Amino acid sequence: xxxxxxxxxxxxxxxxxxxxxxxxxxxxxxxxxxxxxxxxxxxxxxxxxxxxxxxxxxxxxxxxxxxxxxxxxxxxxxxxxxxxxxxxxxxxxxxxxxxxxxxxxxxxxxxxxxxxxxxxxxxxxxxxxxxxxxxxxxxxxxxxxxxxxxxxxxxxxxxxxxxxxxxxxxx
Length: 171
Prior knowledge:
The protein has 171 residues and is an alpha+beta fold. It has helices at residues 3-19, 68-79, 124-136; strands at residues 56-57, 91-99, 105-113, 143-144, 150-151, 153-162, 165-170. The chain has 3 helices and 7 strands. Strands 1, 2, 3, 6 and 7 form a 5-stranded mixed β-sheet that branches.
């Protein structure tokens, strides 16, 4: 047998091992998208219920609110007592949440970073006020699939805080 035939035999044998079905079962199953929010009875309101198990991410939420971003900022500002902000809160506070098929906000998760993108702790009282203001927003649309079935969706708002004041709400 020459070198060419040896190489061909090696490739055929190697492929047969690589293509054979595996007897191992996967140890972990992919469970969803990065950033999925699961209901947590310790921190989520028991009165808030998602309508479905599949929650859809919405990536362009600047104009998803009725009246668009201007209405969202105005209504949030009316609902939020800014006396709880100070310059020690300067940076970004992100509120990730779910809007269910009844247009209710819940399952709110937060992250805070200073302008150097270092994690910051949010004071409990400030956190409660932010959540209360977010839940008070009532003009989220009901989003339906092609068959008229409403579904739940993820959104986020990021507050940019400067000198103890909300400078803007992103996106």
